[in-house]
Amino acid sequence: MDVVWDRGEVTVRHVQDALKPERELAYTSVLTMMQVLERKGFVGARREGRANVYEATVSRDRFGVRSAMEVVNSFFAGSVPAMLSHFVDTDNLSEKDLRRLQALVESEVARRNGDNPTAPGAVK
């Protein structure tokens, strides 16, 4: 997807060539991945001569959210708390990571409560 976002419009050959410095991938492998991305709605395609030209249909941020939710749905029965609990329980998060997550959660709770911890429905 980075190649698609960086170049705007790409063919399978463009993606294959852009990925060569990192790893050698068969044309058919890249084609399959582009077809999967199209089927999932991440890219759109139009025919130009003998090739399909692909273009991103989602932003990087939206792609990240959708991809993360696929992991949550596939491995954690759709439960974000279960996923976070897994990382906390397996010591995969540093103390700094835990403090950052705590600050994010507290900030979001405050935002949803309108910065009023005594508001009806406020999370305590």
Task: Please name the defining characteristics of this protein.
single chain; 124 residues; mainly alpha; Arc Repressor Mutant, subunit A; 3-stranded antiparallel sheet; 6 helices; 3 strands; elongated
Care to give the gist of this entry?
This protein has 124 residues and is mainly alpha-helical. It is 57% helix and 11% strand.
Strand and helix layout:
Layout: H1 2-7, E1 9-10, H2 12-19, H3 27-39, E2 43-48, E3 51-56, H4 60-75, H5 80-89, H6 95-112
Antiparallel strand pairs: 1-3, 2-3
Structure characterization notes:
By secondary structure, this protein is mainly alpha-helical. The chain has a domain at 2-56: Winged helix-like DNA-binding domain superfamily/Winged helix DNA-binding domain (Arc Repressor Mutant, subunit A). 57% of the residues lie in helices and 11% in strands. A 3-stranded antiparallel β-sheet has the order 1-3-2. Helix 2 packs across helix 3. The protein is elongated and about 60 Å long. The two termini are 40 Å apart. The model has no long low-confidence stretch (mean pLDDT 90).
Q: Count of helical segments? A: 6
Order of strands, main sheet, comes to 1-3-2
CATH architectural name of the domain at 2-56: Orthogonal Bundle
Strand content: 5-15%
Distance between the termini: 40 Å
